[in-house]
Design goal:
CATH superfamily of the largest domain: Ribosomal protein S4/S9, N-terminal domain
Strand order of the largest sheet: 2-1-3-5-4
Number of helices: 8
CATH class of the largest domain: Mainly Alpha
Helix content: 40-55%
Radius of gyration: 18 Å
Strand content: 5-15%
Number of domains: 2
CATH topology of the largest domain: Ribosomal Protein S4 Delta 41, Chain A, domain 1
């Protein structure tokens, strides 16, 4: 069952602080990583500029190193993972056959939390992580509570509507965004099948994954 929302004002304040911190980076780059309509960078918002006392001034041109780091940070923020997790995904991508950029992307995009978000079951990557860690997500009918779990081709990610009715209702109302072509969605039964591995050209246009690889290979 989903946990009821707390009426504690401290809880509300903490949630607001987390949301502000989440979008602080979006303000820095001038656009929302997750296309969230509540983000200050969305057209018409009053704070579509970097945070801080000098936020409204002209943006500083980055050095080559700074530009590479920014691309790394964008990827890290989008998937809401730590530096160690991103570095590990890159290290694994360098091993074995195949192109490093494509394997790097798949190591991120095939994470369970990313799939729950990208298939439309959650409104944000942060909500997707909570759904996984709280035990609401199944893979091939078995509960998996690790956001970093890598979903393989042919596996089915689902929500048990009987055990998690509130989560199931939220997932159905969250659906509607553009769904990547490598998913097959059964919204009525809240099932998502990874029908094939994601291709590099399906990476959100916001990122330059080659810059991230250059950052780690330097």
């Amino acid at each position: 069952m989903a946990t009821a929302k707390s009426s504690n004002p401290n809880h509300a304040n903490k949630t607001q602080c987390r949301n502000q911190a989440k979008h602080k980076f979006c303000r820095r780059i001038g656009e929302c990583l997750w296309k969230d309509p509540s983000c200050p960078t969305v057209a018409g918002k009053k704070r579509a500029f970097p945070a801080g006392p000098h936020g409204k001034t002209k943006r500083i041109k980055l050095s080559t190193y700074g530009a590479l780091m920014l691309e790394k940070q964008k990827l890290q923020f989008y998937y809401a993972i730590s530096e160690n997790q991103l570095r590990l995904a890159y290290a694994r991508a360098k091993v074995g056959e195949g192109q490093t950029p494509e394997k790097f992307f798949r190591n991120l995009e095939q994470r369970l939390d990313a799939i729950v978000f990208r298939c439309g079951f959650a409104r944000s990557i942060f909500a997707a992580k909570q759904m996984v860690t709280h035990g609401h997500i199944l893979v091939d009918g078995k509960k998996v509570d690790r956001p970093s779990f890598i979903v393989k081709e042919g596996q089915v990610v689902s929500i048990n509507a009987e055990k998690s009715p509130n989560i199931a209702d939220m997932a159905k109302t969250s659906a509607g965004a553009a769904i990547p072509a490598y998913f097959e969605i059964d919204l009525d039964n809240l099932k998502c099948t990874l029908v094939r591995a994601p291709q590099l050209d399906e990476l959100p246009a916001l990122f330059n994954i080659m810059s991230v690889i250059e950052y780690y290979a330097r």
